Amino acid sequence: MGKLIYDDRLKNKVYIFEDREEAGERLAEFIKDFIDKNSIILAVPSGGVPVGKKLSKKLKIPFDLILVKKITYPWNTEAGFGAVSIEGDYILNDDAVRYTGLTDQIIESQKEKAVQILKHRNSIFRKNKPFPQITGKTVIIVDDGLASGYTMLTAVRMVKRKKPERIIVAVPTCSKSAVEKILPEVDAIFCLNYRDLYPYAVADAYKNWYDLTDEDVLYYLKEGKDDQVS
Predict the structure, then answer these.
(1) Neighbours of 168 (CB within 10 A)
(2) pLDDT tens for residues 126-183?
(3) CATH code, 85
(4) Total domain count, the chain
(5) Do the Cβ atoms of 42 and 159 come closer than 8 Å?
(6) CATH number of the domain residue 192 falls in
């Protein structure tokens, strides 16, 4: 079981970050004393990219992407019933599957659609480069927040197969339910704004919140390009 480390002054507060970049600045300061130089930051697109780039720049740690995505319903592309990685690791929300009556055929179809989107992102964001060598390293997986936790847990399991020394999750904001899912499988979760109240939304931590486009992600990837793993 890993350890949850959060800022008690920010617990259950809302609208505490100006935007993802400022959240990344504060998160870098929060974790700097716990990170060694044998580390790599893996950011979850899209929202985790500006946060991860700030951490990479401030902590002088290599940066790359980990391509995972929620699996969405056929009738609602915003809501998900699980998550999948570009390498096929996946986790389903069994309660959601039962409640909505999803068939195996629908699940497989929606999972494959998500994988195709991830392959497209790998092409445009990473130019189809091989995944970085992370065996024996401290891997810091970054996103802009944890709501259900399924996407991050899928990322954790993809990383775990590659035998890192340590797995750390670093996020500006997180929910209690997500922490309970992820903590047994990582060494630590660093979360500035831990919230154990319901309902929870990642967006409520930010004054300036918007969905990032592919163009936005490419802008952040181009900024500080030298920080990226070659």
Answers:
(1) 23
(2) 999 999 999 999 999 999 999 999 999 999 999 999 999 999 999 999 999 999 999 9
(3) 3.30.1310
(4) 2
(5) yes
(6) 3.40.50.2020
